Amino acid sequence: VRKKLIVIGASYLQRPLVVKAKEMGIETHVFAWEEGAVVADACDYFYPISIVEKEAILQKAKEIQPDGIISIASDLAAVTVNYLAGMLGLIGNSMEVTRNTTNKYLMRSVLSQAHIRCPGFHRLDRSTDLEVIDLNYPAIVKPVDRSGSRGVTRISDPSFLREAADRALEESFFNEAIVEEFIFGRQEISVEMISWLGTHHFLAITEKVTTGSPYYVESQQHQPAEVSSSLRDKIIDTVSRTLTCLGLQYGASHSELLITADDELYIVEIGARMGGDFIGSDLVRLSTGYDFIRGVIEVSLGDFKPVEKPIRKYAGVYYANGSPGLVTEIVDRTADFPQIIQKEIFIQEGDQVGEVKESGDRMGYFIYHNSEKFLLPEPAPIEIVAENLKLVHHESI
Ligand SMILES: Nc1ncnc2c1ncn2[C@@H]1O[C@H](COP(=O)(O)OP(=O)(O)O)[C@@H](O)[C@H]1O
Ligand SMILES: [Mg+2]
Asked: Looking at ligand 1, which residue's alpha carbon is closest to its atom 20?
């Protein structure tokens, strides 16, 4: 008999999940707001109920009697998935795990109590007296509950705290932010794993490049990260212990870390879900051969298969960003590179583009798959030329 899978969320991020489930012969029941529900036509049954309407979804789910429930969309969807899994007796993580992995302040609190290395940190809300905060600078201010670098600012000293805190609080769903000491990393990485019954199976280490100070928007992701084998072991051990300490039992995780000059490791944040930027949906499969999406579907249906010995290829994504101004020309040379297997450009000539302050501001991307790391050629495969008549310099926060 055909297995039934409830999918929470219907944005473009979920498409590979729904497509894979279909390929596996699974019946898909998708819940989401009708607006922007791009997978509505790809699934078997679509219910126009917002992903935050937990009780309404629960009522329907009791009729459907699913074998599993899943989402690869967002932290917001993960809350609903784990709530419903608990109510329906299906595989999922506890609500406590969900809270600790969707709130950056709670996550830091749990990790520091467990003596996992953390920078100094402090919670912020509208009524916090900023004068009492005692931290080393520079510092990073961010909303506790957002992603994609929304509302993230690095500040060099406390005089910028008010402005950065307001920016972060504005972005937060619940008007809550965190300020934490800046970690000087020589390299930023993420670790992709899949968990089953509280055992964490390593899949890949991803090397990340960001736009840097002040907004730290991801601009490149590469797998595998080039790290020594002893450092690799230490990374895997640190992440496994951290996931256990957060109570993660099942499914994908995406752990972000900074490696310092003397190879100390600091957790930046942990997501109990796949990494975005095509990391979970594409790069893991391209670089290791492991079908991560199939893996998480199987876990949600209670049917985990051990991760086999990976192949070793390189895969990555480069985001295309132009400087702010009026876009006068977009040069697309991607067809000249056989390594480039997918691309998209989100803007057009004549558009007025601003500074890239969060993931959603990025202007395009391409994905490569190669026998070695693909270094960005000069000129770039996607070049965005913008004309800026009045260059207004931003205050240096
Ligand atoms: N304490 C920190 N020290 C140094 N860099 C940081 C710190 N916190 C965040 N960053 C930088 O900011 C980026 C975004 O922060 P993160 O906590 O991952 O938020 P988001 O959920 O928006 O991805 C990180 O990838 C990292 O480059
Ligand atoms: Mg992050």
From this structure: 147
Tell me, rounded to whole angstroms, the distance of Cα 218 from its chain centroid. 10
Give the ligand with the smallest distance to the CA of 180: 1
Can you read off the two tokens belonging to residue 91?
């595989």
Q: Which of 144, 145, 149 to mutate to test the pocket of ligand 1 (most atoms within 8 A of CB)?
A: 149
- Per DSSP, the three-state class of 261 is coil
Instruction: For residue 96, report the distance from its CA to the centre of ligand 1, in Å.
Output: 23
- 140-156 average pLDDT score: 95
Please state the φ and ψ torsions of residue 352, each to the nearest 5 degrees.
-100, 120
Choice from 107, 147, 152 to test ligand 1 binding pocket (greatest atom count within 8 A of CB): 152
Residue 17 has pLDDT above 90, yes or no: yes
Q: pLDDT tens across 60-97, in order?
A: 999 999 999 999 978 889 999 999 999 999 999 999 99
Whether the CB-CB separation of 306 and 157 falls below 8 Å is answered with no
Segment 345-372 shows an average pLDDT of 95
The reply to whether the predicted model has a pTM over 0.85 is: yes
Q: What atom in ligand 1 is closest to the CA of residue 208?
A: 25
> For residue range 161-195, what is the model confidence (pLDDT) as tens digits?
999 999 999 999 999 999 999 999 999 999 999 99
CA of 354 to the centre of ligand 2 (A): 22
For residues 266 and 253, give the distance between their C-alpha atoms in angstroms, rounded to a whole number: 17
C-alpha pair distances (Å), 97 with each of 75, 143, 175, 318: 12, 19, 21, 32
Asked whether the CA dihedral 230, 234, 235, 237 is positive or negative, the reply is: positive
